[in-house]
Amino acid sequence: xxxxxxxxxxxxxxxxxxxxxxxxxxxxxxxxxxxxxxxxxxxxxxxxxxxxxxxxxxxxxxxxxxxxxxxxxxxxxxxxxxxxxxxxxxxxx
Length: 93
Hints:
By secondary structure, this protein is mostly helical. The chain has helices spanning 6-14, 23-39, 70-82, 86-89.
C-alpha cells in the first residue's frame, strides 16, 4: 500500500520517528513504494496507486487499491523529501 508509512510520517510532526522504525527499513520501503506504486502505475505520471501486487500489477481485489489518492501521494512525496529522497520526488513535479 502506498500509505503504509503515513503513521510513521505523522510521528515527525510530534516527535522523532526514527526512534520507532530503523531508517534503513523506511528507506527500503519508500524505494519499493516508489518503484511499484508510482513508476509502475500509468508510467509514473499519475501519482501513487494505493495497492500494487509484487509482480507490478495493480491489486484488483478492491476498488480502494485501484485508486490514486492525491493526499496520499503528496504525503508520500513529503515523507520522501524528509527522508532525503529528493531525486524520487522530482518525478512527481
